[in-house]
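Appendix B. Chain record.
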Amino acid sequence: MKKYNKLVRDRIPELIKKSGKTCKTRRLSDDEYRDRLKEKLTEEVGELLKSPCVEEIADIIELLKSPCVEEIADIIEVLEAISSNIGSSLPEVIEIKEKKRRERGGFSKRIFLEHVNEIESSASDRSGETRD
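Structure tokens predicted for this chain:
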């Protein structure tokens, strides 16, 4: 007997039974479900990061042929479940993502912020004058 003790997709028990095996499942409480969704997201992201496609991401044709796309699809599925569980929807989340992209940009420019220098304001700064 192989133990899994993890959240699985809805049709997995049916597929296990079709393969001639049996399984034991239970329905999670709301709190357990939230915790298990977090674990599932961590698992799926980990699988994506271990996938060889992450190193080859610049080659979009290879990316589309690789298992990487399946891992990304799994992550989206988990995010959709989390969204639903908190009373939202994936389209709503995507709308917010697009708004943030319009307001703050995305990550395509690969900008790495090393630090921010805090400048003490002088009296002239507070009056609206700028320094050259």
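Further analysis of this model is presented in Appendix C.
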